[in-house]
Amino acid sequence: MAGHLGLLARLRARHLRSDARFLLFAVGADIDEDRGFLERTYQVYLVIIFAVSLAISWAQVIDIVGGLREALGAGTSSWLARELLILAPAVAFLAWGVSGLRETPLRLSGPDMVWLARVVRPEELFAMQLVGSAAAIALVGALAGTLLAALAGEPWPVWVTAAPLALLTARLFALDAVLPRSAAEPRARRVVTAFAGVTVVALGVGVIAASGFLAAFVPRLFTPYAFCVVIIANGFLLTGAVNWSGKANMAFVVDDNELYAARSAMRFLALVDSGAYKEACRRRRARRGKQARRTWRFGTGRAAAVSHGLLSLVRHPTSVLGLLSWGALLVPMGALLMVSNVGVGVLLSWFVCACFSLRIPLELGRVFRDDCRNRLVRSLLPFGRLELLALDALPVLAVTLVSSVAATAAVASVLGADALLAVPLACALDLLLALSCGLDDPAAPTRLGSVLVTGFAGAVVALFLVGIASLFGPVPALACALLADALLAWLLRD
Question: What is the mean pLDDT of residues 15-22?
Fold first, then answer.
């Protein structure tokens, strides 16, 4: 086993070196070909510049979190830090559990299926993969711990220890819950999967729902004794995970890794065109997964477009994650920040995050974009842009609005913000994002003079204007958002 583990470690190191070489091509460096003194000096220079940039950027993030603490107050920010220490591992556990039920945690690329699956035992593969993922989780947890320490205004060593431990515990717990699916007999696999799914959802949702109550006990856990107990428990969880991985059915593991192998082959496409990468993964998943029955009956007239949007949502349930990322996270966060009159730095940070998320085509307009790309069908539809967008996006917009209202009202009640202004503002921002998707109709491009207005540009400009208006108060922000909705609807009226 030691020989195989050493082999896997060397293979992993070669893969990392190959990935690093590919990424360094973007800055004109080749770590294999450029081996001279000047070339190596340039490569070291790049590493130093990258490290210094990361350090400065992270210091700025910590400074922004400190500003948020001053805006919220010491008591609220300290409670929020404890809440996040419970909430983040619970959400991560739920995400890892669902991912492990959809695809086995024993991940194999295409070449790995051909050779490693026949030579190396599954527990050896699992151990090597777990080491890599544990290192990444520990690093992310340590960085998150520094942010929570800055938010709580407390010494950072305790938080930097607690956050990685919490995330690693959630990861090991998720692996223990989902690995029996890979080891189950074919006849019992559905029962095992159903039981694991119920366990993951019940525990994840239960901890998330009780996170406010559990946050009060967090300070009592910041002791060396409690940390030692968690480490010992993680040891037992690790033993169970390795034991289950050793019983894995490799034929099932290889078959279940088909989608992962396809994603792994296209992983660098995500850096160039994330929209194309997600679309390719979605189509690959649709070809492999079970589709909705073809006996789905569409409505007639306007109900046909609504049925199309609803069927698309049913066939691609993973799109709900994209909707919730906006409806339950980014939009409520932005609405609450605007209502709370925070500083410009905090609001600018939210705006930058929103702009980066807008680079990926919004799920709100996916059905509308599909209808517009199909020129043969689009020319026969008796709907204008605004009407077609409203009908196609109705199901997904309903999901987004419900999640925004629920998340905004819940967080506003905790933070003491004005929910009567925050909830309408969140709904107005959701409508703004949905209407901006209508600007991507290739058959009817929108121009202001000689400038082509795209959905991305329209959404960014509108969010920027609403953010500027929020500096004068929540009422001007709501008025600006409603005015932007009306302007976009007017642009799409034909």
Answer: 78
Q: Distance between CA 85 and CA 148 in Å, rounded?
A: 8
DSSP characters over 16-70:
HHHHHHHHHGGGT--TTT--SHHHHHHHHHHHHHHHHHHHHHHHHHHHHHHHHHH
For residue 61, give the DSSP letter: H
Percent of residues in the chain assigned helix, strand, coil, to nearest 5: 80, 0, 15
Question: ∠ at Cα 42 (37, 43), nearest 5°?
Answer: 100
Dist CA 388 CA 390 (whole Å):
5
pLDDT per position as a tens digit, 140-191: 999 999 989 888 888 888 899 999 999 999 999 999 999 999 888 888 888 9
What predicted TM-score, i.e. pTM, was given to this entire model?
Answer: 0.67
Q: What is the pLDDT of residues 260-272, one digit of tens each?
A: 877 777 777 766 6
State the residue for tokens 């990258």. Answer: 50
| Burial label, 140 (beta-carbon count in 10 A; 0-12, 13-18, 19+) | middle
For strands 451-453 and 446-448, give the pairing: antiparallel
> How far is 422 from 404, CA to CA, in rounded Å?
10
Token couple for 12: 């992993």
pLDDT tens for 412-455 read 887 778 888 999 999 999 999 988 888 877 666 666 666 677 78
The pLDDT score that the predictor gives to residue 418 is: 84
Residue 467 to residue 344: CA distance in whole angstroms: 9
**For residue 372, what pLDDT is reported?**
76
67-95 as b/e: b if 16+ CB within 10 A: bbbebbeeeebbbbbbbbbbbbbbbbbbe
- Answer yes or no: is pLDDT of 294 > 50: no
Question: Running DSSP on this structure, what letter comes out for residue 374?
Answer: -
pLDDT of residue 3 exceeding 90, the answer is no
pLDDT at position 303 is 73
Distance CA 131, CA 139 (A): 12
Give the DSSP H or E segment for 446: strand 446-448
CB 66 within 8 A of CB 147: no
In Å, how far are 348, 431, 468, 483, 484 from 480, measured between CA atoms? 17, 13, 9, 5, 6
**3-class SS at 452?**
strand
Tokens of 264: 């792994």
The rounded Cα 462 to chain-centroid distance in angstroms is 24
Residue 299 CA to chain centroid, in angstroms?
A: 34
